[in-house]
Structures are given as structure tokens and as C-alpha cells.
């Protein structure tokens, strides 16, 4: 197994965002999306860990759930500090996590593979998870900058994410990338028509919005309005 420490940052993001998990099915509910705590019980924790077999196995206990919730709060605090512009505090909190959950690299050779690195093998799931998540986040921060740790600005969202755009312009999670258009500078003379043709200097790594996507939340000025006519 190839170890890419930076990819472990994803563990931190997934865990923090389990605070309010909205399932794809929930989004279609007529009474509005249900937002459940992804760590409401051990089944929730098992769901979160599904597809990540390298985190260790064994029976999950209630105290593992408590440990994961505590880790989640700690990681969340790193993001909220950064999003509030308090980068000093964000770094301090992340450093505390790195001290609390040291990384233990080990060389391993198995399944005919050459000697390669494994990280924190064999510990309890929360310990393995914490060491990898903190390390991954720290590697990302060192690579991109601590201000890249963001909290989505869409009302009621609160999901965290890593802004890796060149111009550090992303302020909304991938689910709310469409809201990014509303962040434009307030002095901009209204030009609602520019959605069709992006300026040539628009960042190429912005949200992948295609001009002919019709299922997005964008409101077009010339949308046929079937209810405009007088009712009989
Ligand atoms: Zn391996
Ligand atoms: Zn969001």
C-alpha cells in the first residue's frame, strides 16, 4: 500500500463533516433534508469507516465512538479557527493533535511487495484515525497554507473543506459551489448575463459549471414562465 500522507487529510474532512450528514435520498425529501449526526451511534461510525479497511479492524466499542466524537470536535476547531482568520490558533490546535497522536511509520513487505511504509498499524481505530488525520492535515497546510482550511459560508451548511484553488477564492463546499457566484464583489454593476460566457481570465480550476447545465439552481432571465398568464 502506497502511503500518501497528504491524502490522509481527507480523513479529517470526512470526520468533521459527519456532524451533519445529509444523505442523497434525504435531499429529495419534501419536508426538507434531514441532517443526522453521522456519529449518532456505532452503526454511524461503521458507515464512516466503510471502505477504509486500512484503519484497523476489531470490534468497535462505545468508547471508540466517544473518542471519535472528541477528535471530531478538535479537528472542527482547527477549521473554525482558520476560517475566522485566527491562523495562530488553528496551527496551535493542530500541533496539539500531532503531539497527542504521534505518527508511527513502519516498513512492511507483504504480498510480494517491496518494503514500503505503513503508518500506525494495529492500534485502536480512533488512534490510527487521529494520527493519520492530523498528519494529513498538517502536510496539506504546509503545502498550501493554513488559510486553506475553510468552513462553507452557505447558511446552515457548516461543512469544512480545503480550498486548493490558485487564487484562494473558494468559500463554499463542493455541494454549494453554485453559491460561489453570489460572492462577487459588491460594487460590481449588475450583469446577470455573464453566466453564459466566463471571462477569459476566470480561474480554470473553479467549480465545474457548464453553461448548458439546466438542472442547477441558476435562474435564467428568459425562463419560460408558465404561470404568468391570467387564470381563468
Ligand atoms: Zn502495505
Ligand atoms: Zn456547503
UniProtKB/TrEMBL annotation:
Out of the domains of life, which is the source? Bacteria
Q: Where is the composition biased (Basic and acidic residues)?
A: 167-179
Q: Which residues form the Zinc finger CGNR domain?
A: 148-174
* InterPro entries for the chain: ABATE, ABATE_dom_sf, Znf_CGNR
Which residue windows does the record flag with biased composition (Low complexity)? Answer: 200-213
Disordered: where is this region?
167-232
Protein name listed in UniProt: Zf-CGNR multi-domain protein
Amino acid at each position: 500500500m502506497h502511503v500518501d500522507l497528504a491524502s490522509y487529510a481527507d480523513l479529517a474532512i470526512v470526520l468533521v463533516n459527519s456532524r451533519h450528514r445529509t444523505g442523497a435520498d434525504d435531499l429529495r425529501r419534501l419536508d426538507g433534508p434531514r441532517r443526522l449526526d453521522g456519529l449518532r451511534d456505532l452503526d454511524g461510525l461503521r458507515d464512516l469507516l466503510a471502505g477504509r479497511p486500512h484503519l484497523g479492524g476489531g470490534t468497535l466499542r462505545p468508547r471508540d465512538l466517544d473518542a471519535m466524537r472528541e477528535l471530531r470536535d478538535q479537528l472542527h476547531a482547527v477549521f473554525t479557527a482558520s476560517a475566522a482568520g485566527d491562523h495562530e490558533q488553528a496551527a496551535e490546535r493542530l500541533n496539539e493533535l500531532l503531539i497527542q497522536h504521534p505518527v508511527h511509520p513502519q516498513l512492511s513487505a507483504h504480498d510480494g511487495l517491496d518494503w514500503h511504509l505503513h503508518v500506525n498499524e494495529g492500534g485502536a481505530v480512533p488512534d490510527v484515525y487521529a494520527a493519520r488525520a492530523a498528519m494529513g492535515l498538517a502536510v496539506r497546510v504546509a503545502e498550501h497554507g493554513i488559510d486553506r482550511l475553510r468552513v462553507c459560508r452557505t447558511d446552515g451548511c457548516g461543512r469544512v473543506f480545503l480550498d486548493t484553488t490558485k487564487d484562494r477564492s473558494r468559500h463554499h463546499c463542493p455541494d454549494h459551489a453554485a453559491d460561489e457566484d453570489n460572492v462577487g464583489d459588491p460594487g460590481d454593476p449588475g450583469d446577470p448575463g455573464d453566466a453564459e460566457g466566463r471571462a477569459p481570465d476566470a480561474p480554470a480550476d473553479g467549480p465545474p459549471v457548464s453553461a448548458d447545465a439546466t438542472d442547477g439552481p441558476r435562474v435564467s432571465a428568459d425562463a419560460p414562465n408558465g404561470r404568468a398568464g391570467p387564470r381563468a
